[in-house]
Amino acid sequence: MTKKAKFLPIFLLSVAAMATLIGLSARSVSAQSNVAGAVEGLQITPVIVEQSKVQKGSSYSVPVTLTNVTSQDHTYYAAVNDFTSQDETGSPRILLDSTLPDAVSIRTWVSVVKQVTIKANQAIIINVQINIPTNAESGGHYGTLRFSGVAPTPQSAGIGLSASTGMLFLISVDGNITEKASVASFTTATTDDKATGFFEKAPLNLVVRIKNEGNVHVKPFGQILVHDMFGGLVATLPVNDQKSNVLPSSIRRFDITLNNSWMFGHYTADLALGYGTSGQAMTATTDFWIIPYKLVLVVLLALATITFILVRMVRVYNKRIITKAIQKHDQKTSSNTKK
Q1: The domain 46-173 is classified under which CATH number: 1.25.40.10, 1.10.10.350, 2.60.40.2310, 3.40.50.2300?
Q2: CA angle, 316 as apex, 310 and 318 as ends, to 5°?
Q3: What pTM was estimated for this model as a whole?
Q4: Which ranges of the chain have pLDDT less than 70?
Q5: Cα–Cα nearest to 226, from 215, 211, 237
């Protein structure tokens, strides 16, 4: 077997091995659920009551449906508390020991029955009376009406909170209203919340943090446009399409997942949000890189291996040709010498 024939199977096996490595490296393996608990089988409708631009000194009634979904009769006890933002997720923090004045606190605005007994698998409707004091401060006021199986007392306040369910009140009192929000930050992060601007592949999170600098809650919403390095639009992502609120003096975070199947290179994300009764706008821009470096390294290794093999084959082939030429020349010289 010639040297060229010996190299041929080696070359084919090397190419096949590199192709297999590339195929394995290119593979990628691609819910969040909110569970609303109910205390002793109690369901409440509505969950959120929102009133905008209510007048000072006004009163209104809100019908609330309470449903006992268990097979036993139950007595439920009502409690009214103020609340504020607990963290950047928007979760409410119930103020059990609120000392806010009557002009601010909803505790003294909401009138409701102190306790109610509901038969098994039955629903009743109660009226919640809301009385806005004449000296109420303009802007947003936030409270919760909770029901629990334990009568609210100073000793059982903590127990009542952990085993209660309720509804939220978001009331905006007319007057000197300030709607002012800004983008606290617009960044990128991994899906496990590690801040970075460099990714091996999608999915990744675009993290929007909105700061409310006004005195009333706002609902910022809009979209993010993602462009590649050539200016082409690769994704349009909605932001806060659920119209969640950002409370005054707080920051709320929105995570938007970008999960395009194949991305490579430098990308720019443009954020555009609107909010408020006057259509105020907020914009921001961030950029990031997606480089599948593992795949790139495998491809480079494969190319280097193939190049090395080809160079070696060419050298062996050239050496063989030169050797044949020298042998032919020697044979010719020997023949001429004999003559």
Answers
A1: 2.60.40.2310
A2: 100
A3: 0.73
A4: 1-40, 152-162, 295-296, 329-330, 335-339
A5: 237
